[in-house]
Specification:
single chain; about 200 residues; alpha/beta; Rossmann fold; 6 helices; 7 strands
Length: about 200
């Protein structure tokens, strides 16, 4: 089976990215981590990329003040590395129209709740888990979805539930949700590669 090229956009730690890279290295995924892009020069994700021998780029608004130019540059960098599937791994910037159009139906994101619950602008990381606890929810989980124009609004591809315990804090809930994100992300990409999950069906 021909390996597909993955391109990663990450802003901070890149733990989901690392889980996917590890799955590629182990042979679980027939994929090649082709490039990592971050808007944050201090992102651990960039360090991980260097450690793994993956081309890494810091492309952010500090150096590129024109949003359209930055959008085109990110898109062209992915194209230059022949990326076929774009993986968002804790990427804190809204996807620009050029990237969205070029890779429409081929941009994945992971969210630490059961969308559409607790999604939208400002709902990321610990903010999500805080909101879940504050709402008294009995379950949370992880969602993999296609990226659309607005935050967390694209078609849902996969979800996995995590029980919220009475004694949970946002921190303890986050600790249990994160490994579920890792596993679900790898599993979803595997299903896409195998053809079991056809992305074009969700874009009709």
């Amino acid at each position: 089976m021909k390996k597909i090229n993955l391109g990663f956009l990450a802003s901070f730690r890149g733990t989901n990215m690392q889980a996917i890279i590890d799955a590629c290295k182990s042979g679980r995924l027939a994929a090649n981590p082709a490039v990592v892009i971050s808007n944050n020069s201090a992102a651990r994700a960039l360090q991980r990329a260097v450690e793994e021998g993956i081309p890494a780029y810091h492309l952010g608004s500090a150096a590129y003040t024109d949003p359209e130019e930055l959008d085109r540059l990110i898109t062209n960098t992915l194209l230059d590395h022949e990326v076929e599937l774009v993986i968002l791994a804790g990427y804190m910037k809204k996807i620009g129209p050029c990237l969205l159009d070029t890779y429409r139906g081929r941009i994945l994101n992971v969210h630490p709740s059961l969308l559409p619950r607790f999604g939208g602008k400002g709902m990321y990381g610990m903010h999500v888990h805080e909101a879940v606890i504050a709402a008294g929810e009995k379950e949370s989980g992880a969602t993999i979805h296609l990226v659309a124009g607005d935050y967390d609004t694209g078609p849902i591809l996969a979800q996995r539930k995590v029980r919220v315990a009475e004694q949970d804090t946002p921190e303890t809930l986050a600790e249990r949700v994160l490994p579920v994100e890792h596993e679900l992300y790898v599993d979803t990409i595997s299903r896409i590669i195998s053809g079991d999950l056809r992305l074009e069906v969700y874009m009709r």
